[in-house]
Structures are given as structure tokens and as C-alpha cells.
Amino acid sequence: MSDRDVSDDTPGMLAVGNSTPSVQLTEHTGRPVTLGGPGGRPTLVVFVPFAFSPVCGDELARLNTVLPELRERVDVCAVSCDPVPTLRAWAERESFDFPLLSDFWPHGAAARAFGVLDEEQGYARRGSFLLDTEGVMRWRTLSPAGVGRDPEVYLQAAASLPSVGSVDFR
Known about the structure:
single chain; alpha+beta; two-stranded antiparallel ribbon; seven-stranded mixed β-sheet
């Protein structure tokens, strides 16, 4: 899919084919959300290091532009270790049309569970994961620091899944 896709031997990251852990997070609206585990629809999970940073803002804005096509097959959410009020302000300012999930407390629990937490710096690395309805990882990618992901890889990954019904996430 991309020269930045990771192989199954990437240390610490969940491997394709493994079940994902269920982690309790809070959406930027304040709503509690369970990430991972069995769910109603396949889900694209996009970890970003920092709200309001230029690279993160650009890549989520580009993700927003392909959202209608992605939602035909998957739910979409972004996860950051930033607190809920920060994510709420960012979502409102940038008009993101998908949930931003706060992994603030316990700090980095979701990023750690998916194997993308930078333990020394305390932020989520740029990992993306596609989970099926059973919570099994079907695809993943990891981009280097400072390099945004191309939303085209998400469209390709989502197209590899069987077609599903209407959006259930919002």
C-alpha cells in the first residue's frame, strides 16, 4: 500500500490478525467511547501526536476530505494523548467531521495498547489501524515523525474489507 507500511515484525505494535484490546476513551464531545474489541462496524483508528500541530492538522484535514468515501465502508476516529478540551477546540476550529478521542488519562493507555506510545516523550506515534467488526486488526501502517499519512492508503485499506451497512458511530 505504501512504502511506509509496517511489517509484522515492528517491535511493540499489534500484529495484523491479532485481536485488539478494548480501551475506554473520551470523545472530544465528552462522550465515553470504547475503542477496540468487537463492534458494529469496521473502524479506522488514526493516532496523531499533537493537536494543533501543522503536520497533524494537515493530515486530519486531508482525511476529512475523503471521509464520505471512507464512511461507505468504515467508521473513522483519530486518537491523541491531548486532553478533551484541547481536542474539542481543535475539532471546532478545523471542522473535523469525525470523532477525536482523548487518550489523556490514563495517559497513553490506547497508544500503549496498540504499540504506538513513545514512552520517553509521552505522545502517540503516527500509527493507523483498520479493525474489523470483531476487533481483529486487518491492516496497519506507521509513519515516521513529522511525516503525515496520505489518506489514499486508508481508501485502499478500506476497499479490501467486505462492504457494510450505514454509519453507526455518530
